[in-house]
Amino acid sequence: MAQADCSFVIAPGALPLLGHTLRFLRDPLRFLRSLPDIGDVVTIRLGPVGAVVVCAPELVRQVLVDDRTFDKGGFLFDRSREFLGNGLGTCLHKDHRRQRRMIQPAFHRARLPGYAREMSAQAHAVTDAWRHGRTIDVLAETTAISLRTTAATIFSAAPAALRESLAADLATLEEGVFRRMLLPPHVDAVPTPGKRRYDRAHARSRQTINRIIADYRADGVDHGDLMSMLLAAQDDLAGPGTEGARLSDDEVRDQVMSFLFASTDTIGKALAWALHLLGGHPHIAERLHAEADAVLAGGVAGFDDLPRLEVTRNIITETMRLYPPGWLLTRTTTVDAELGGRHIPAGTDVAFSPYQIHHRGDLFTEPERFDPDRWAPDRAGAIPREAFLPFGGGARKCIGDAYALTEATLALATIAARWRLEPTPGRRVRAAPYALALGPKGLFMRTVARDVAGHEVRGRSAASGEGAGRPKDTSASRP
Ligand code: HEM
Fold it and tell me: What CA–CA distance (Å, rounded) separates 346 from 332?
């Protein structure tokens, strides 16, 4: 990684050797939010690594659109390739177009109704086990919904034991990955217990996926899931039987790893944030419940309900504006480049933050306010296109954006039809950015079962009418 030897203004407060590392680690979101006041592009130093942070939305757009010059790389992506491999999210520009061509059909709109069936089923399964009046670890529950959905849509035919093993390893990898990305390789090489646990989870998860691939190849059945589609994927630009016309087993494994990482944490955290925000804005929660009652009448949300779940969708969109799971992204310049009329040498780390852009007062009125109605058709048109990038943009835009919005909307409506979640007094919820995805920390809420008329259903499960309760601690993440 190169030093950012550019003529951009340097963020104040750099310490000798450490640069801005301490300020960044202490409160990365605050640090990022302070940068637009300094310049459109600002140089920072994280230990020995220099990077330029692009703050102006039109310049971020330039970075996103020119993905040959601003290729995947930089301090967040260089290390992630070590464990995520060369999948769609991490591969370089030279491999990207072929991979995207081959994988895109799996995310075609026509596939969504099939995925939506699993999304609804898993949201129902997790929330059906809730009991009235309990305190739940919201992030664990929403992560359980997204993890179960991801497993069901990627490899529906994999044995439960393999899915469970993968779920546990994924949790370990997710915990350790951000730290590993920021540590210099020689420090990360020290075999601490955490590092050994991480390495074991890494090796085992690859073996597990390899085994699932081998089983799928052996039975040769099309299970209608993402794995079946990856195995059958054909590059139309390569002649049949030529090298590269199909994805190799290693390539399939890297894609699966990318999907698992890209989808589980992000959707789980977005849903958790939505529930947290609703807890603090009861008047908006009431509108959500009213919509769920009118559309679902106490049932589970399905794909055909989506057009009528407008309040729900706007709540999800606004949640991802305030707390975009992909809060910080990086690139590296492959050649000498220009940004905002200034020179950037080849090999420079370039960072940008959807979180920072989404909180700019010149792009959003009252940017700190939770206001789902800003996405209503009569107001949304006033928001510039480059101001909202929860899924990135350009050729590297999230391939799972429609999948993610569908899952989050169906899950939130399904929850709202039967449950109201109340904040637990005295607990402080904080944004925890020390992970690839920005999540809430300390989010525990109380379940209130409700019926279609909006009444509280005391002393029983909202879903089944049973009186039996689960243990108070519902934090175990179920795959
Ligand atoms: C709320 C949920 C999600 C959010 C916020 C999100 C966010 C993002 C962002 C910001 C990028 C661009 C990264 C960059 O420019 O460096 C991205 C790329 C990607 N996402 Fe998502 N994502 C979500 C869900 C999903 C799902 C459900 C899948 C797949 C099942 C997925 C798969 C991918 C892949 C494969 C890429 C790389 C695309 C490419 O480079 O061509 N994501 N995502």
Answer: 8
* Lowest mean per-residue pLDDT among 163-172, 222-231, 405-414: 163-172
Torsion of CA 26, 29, 31, 33, to 10 degrees: -160
Q: Are 309 and 413 in contact (CB under 8 A)?
A: yes
Helix (H/G/I), strand (E/B), else coil: 91: coil
DSSP-assigned letters across all residues of 12-74 = S-PBTTTBTHHHHHH-HHHHHHHGGGT-SEEEEEETTEEEEEE-SHHHHHHHHH-TTTEEE-S
Could you read off the pLDDT of 218-261 as tens digits, one per residue? 999 999 899 999 999 888 777 666 666 889 999 999 999 989 98
Smallest Cα–Cα separation from 273: which of 143, 115, 447?
A: 143
Backbone angles phi, psi at 421, to 5 degrees: -110, 125
Helix %, strand %, coil % for the chain, to 5?
A: 50, 10, 35
90 lines ligand 1 (CB under 6 A): no
End-to-end CA distance of the chain: 37
At which residue do the structure tokens 């139309």 appear? Answer: 236
> Atom of ligand 1 at shortest distance to CA of 153?
30
| Contact by Cβ (8 Å): 171, 477 | yes
How far does Cα 253 stand from its chain's mean position?
20
DSSP state of 243: T
Spell out the domains of the chain, with CATH numbers in brackets: 1-85+327-389 (1.10.630.10)
Within 155-248, residue ranges assigned H as helices are 160-182, 185-188, 193-219, 226-232
**Is residue 74 lining ligand 1, measured as CB closer than 6 Å?**
no
Q: Is the beta carbon of 404 within 6 A of some atom in ligand 1?
A: yes
**287-314: pLDDT as tens digits:** 999 999 999 998 899 999 999 999 999 9
